[in-house]
Amino acid sequence: MKKIRIVLAKPGLDGHDQGAKVVARALMDAGFEVIYTGLRQTPEAIARIALDEDADVIALSSMAGSHLPVCRKLKPLLEQAGLGDKLWIIGGNLPAQDHDALRALGFKGIFPSSSRLEDIVNYIRTNAP
Amino acid sequence: MKPKDLPEKELRPVVNESGIEVKPLYTAADVEASGGSGMIGLPGQYPFARGIHSMMYRKQPWTMRQYTGFGNPADTNKRFHYLIANGQTGLNVAFDLPTQCGMDSDDPQAEGEVGRVGMAVDTLRDFEIAFEGVDLERITVSLTINGAAAILIAMYLAMAEKRGYDLAKLRGTAQNDILKEFVGRGTWVYPVEPSIRLVGDTIEYCAGHAPKYSPVSVCGYHIRESGADPAQEMAYAFCIAKAYADDVIRRGLPVDEFAGRLSFNFNCFGNLFEQVAKFRAGRSLWAKIMKEQYRAAKPGSMWMRMIAGGGGGGLTFEQPELNIVRGAYYALVCALAGTQTMALCCYDEAYTIPSEYAQRISLRTMQLLIEEMGLTDTVDPLGGSYYVETLTNQMRARMEAIMAEVDAQGGIVKLVAEGAIQARVSAQAYRRQRDTDAGKFRKVGVNCYRTEDKTPEMEFHPYREQDARAQIQALERVRAERDAARVQAALARVQADARAGANLMPAIMEATKAYASVGEITGVLVGVFGRYREPVRF
Predict the structure, then answer these.
(1) Which H or E element spans position B306?
(2) Longest Cα pair distance anywhere in chain B, in angstroms?
(3) CA angle B80-B86-B90, nearest 5°?
(4) Domain C-terminal end among B437, B456, B481
(5) Does residue B434 sit at the A interface (CB-CB below 8 Å)?
(6) How are beta strands B14-15 and B21-22 bridged, if at all?
């Protein structure tokens, strides 16, 4: 069976990558293929990498509060790239009051700080296209 | 068998985070077996394990300096005055991410980030507004800036000079520790080598022109946040501090002319005794390194001066009010450990930029230790405890072993440039997270004593798009009003000096005085140095 391919991106200027790297390791250990982008990715770069890497899952990690503007910019770019049917998820410092807006932008899986690694893995396994 | 009858060897073993086994009881024999008291001594005397000053807080309590900054310089200026009015004795400035990454507020990549996690700064005008009405002699200012540090230090000195302060007497600190940015925190700009050169430039320049200013605060803090254990935190920070010192010494500056202005920033979450021992051990190890390896003669060159009190990695999203209690213990640890400055983390930090209310609680927590709990009455109150002294010796030995290992593997600069330190600490962070998820590493409210009660309402720091627009308009006004020819000439000199390998600070000072922007100066330097490319290694 083909491995689930996940592009895990750090959008914007936020440099807090400890969480993203921990999640990347957990996803690799779970048997997924993980492409970690490194820091400071623009929405354009994320969409391009996701397309080039034939991603099944586009995962973002955001710790510094810019998740809504980032996701607003990323949504049309992912759709234009034909990635609208892929699984979009986001983790990090995401206040509960923003979760509906994130879901409305197409980010179905939301994993705020303190989420368990196992829950992230299981969610992807169940929901990846 | 009843628990009270358990022989010692059947007790559950306890190993601290630094890998040291903790015994159920310590006696004088343990202190001797771990190396005796030769590296402990008296406060104010080499090797300074018990404190860098003989009377410590009895003379003057630690400086209280909460990390603050958001929105526009005028917003931040108001919060500065609020904190000073509440008894704060220093300022610790947070900058927004565009500023930290060397971008102007109108940079396309800055969109949505201007003023979000700190104060937006584009030109000297912003510093003039931010520090208006602040007495820079009475209130010492710390700038939490790294990738853009040379520019912001220049801006601060230029602002102080313009207000009539004598740079020869001006105190203050910049974080300016770029090597740890490559390990964690991530606000790098240039590749590793020119980044170190810039740090060296600031140290050399300040030694000559602002000798009381601390141009670098070497941070174990963020390396710890990225997954290092407490002994690694301190060992890696010392390796990094040595890399900066080596750069400056290669320029021919004697160690005693700059080492006294090096300072440190450490984390404090975790086991209370391990933390206190870490700081005591670190102080004596740094003194030993400066004396034996660098042949420093002045006591000040051997002092591990530090700021502590933050411990984001220990705070929890769950039951956030418990973070007030954790913060109080952090403050206790730092006071017991003899810190020079305290910046205590706030209970709402796992959620948002701290509210005024949360910051006041942190400030009052420190004041409470001073006024009610007797933490400033006597120097190094845990000194002489068999446990703490043994652990201090053991922690120092661990740190020395880690530093030797780094040297054997090619040195800290190489290991950071390759991403090896990053991979090491990130693997540890992953193990820690798995242990936390499995309940093996206990976190109250997270994997034990959870509650389904609603968490208290959090006051989220607002983000206002119109403030970002106002900041951009202010920048446009400065650009229109400034002397364009002076700016061009100053930027040309920055470029020439960057190429020639000259100390960049005089040229950057002139550029900031001409109101060249952070993004413009950075752009010129990127043109010469290039940009850092992050090694992604697992």
Answers:
(1) strand B306-310
(2) 87
(3) 50
(4) B437
(5) yes
(6) antiparallel
Does the CB of B447 have a partner CB in chain A at under 8 Å?
A: no
Which amino acid would we find at residue B145?
I
8 Å CB contact of B112 and A21: no
A14 inside domain: yes
Q: Do A39 and B318 touch (CB under 8 A)?
A: no
CA distances from B67 to B93, B112, B322, B323 (A): 6, 22, 20, 16
Q: For residue B456, tell me if it sits in a domain.
A: no
What pLDDT tens digit does each residue of chain B (538 aa) get?
Answer: 455 666 777 889 999 999 999 999 999 999 999 999 999 999 999 999 999 999 999 999 999 998 999 999 999 999 999 999 999 989 999 999 999 999 999 999 999 999 999 999 999 999 999 999 999 999 999 999 999 999 999 999 999 999 999 999 999 999 999 999 999 999 999 999 999 999 999 999 999 999 999 999 999 999 999 999 999 999 999 999 999 999 999 999 999 999 999 999 999 999 999 999 999 999 999 999 999 999 999 999 999 999 999 999 999 999 999 999 999 999 999 999 999 999 999 999 888 888 999 999 999 999 999 999 999 999 999 999 999 999 999 999 999 999 999 999 999 999 999 999 999 999 999 999 999 999 999 999 999 999 988 877 888 888 888 999 999 999 999 999 999 999 999 999 999 999 999 999 999 999 999 999 999 999 999 999 999 999 988 8
Chain B residues with beta carbon closer than 8 angstroms to that of A36: 536, 538
Contact between B433 and A39 using a beta-carbon 8 Å cutoff? no
ipTM of the complex: 0.96
Q: Count Cβ neighbours within 10 Å for each residue of B143-169 and write b for 16 or more, e otherwise.
A: bbbbbbbbbbbbbbbbbbbeeebeeee
Please, is B436 exposed, middle or buried when counting C-beta atoms within 10 Å of its C-beta (0-12, 13-18, 19+)?
middle
A69 to chain B: which residues are within 8 Å by CB? 111-112
Q: Which of B116, B352, B536 sits opposite A36 (nearest CB)?
A: B536
User: What are A's interface residues with B at a Cβ cutoff of 8 A?
Assistant: 12-18, 21-22, 24-26, 28, 36-40, 42, 64-66, 69-70, 93, 95, 97, 112-114, 116-118
Q: Based on the domain organization, do B478 and B369 belong to the same domain?
A: no
Domain span at residue B478? 467-529
Q: In terms of domains, do B299 and B340 share one?
A: yes
Q: Which whole-number Å values give the CA distances from A28 to A59, A127, B259, B526, in the listed order? A: 14, 17, 44, 35
Enumerate residues 100 to 139 of chain B having a beta carbon within 8 A of any beta carbon in chain A.
100-101, 103, 109-113, 116-117
Secondary structure of B118-157 in the HEC alphabet? CECCCCHHHHHHHCCCCCCCCCEEEEECCCCHHHHHHHHH
In a domain, A129, yes or no: no
Specify the DSSP class assigned to residue A86.
Answer: S
Angle at B171 between CA B59 and CA B304, to 5 degrees: 60
What separation in angstroms does the CA of A69 have from each of A11, A41, A42, B173?
A: 10, 14, 12, 34
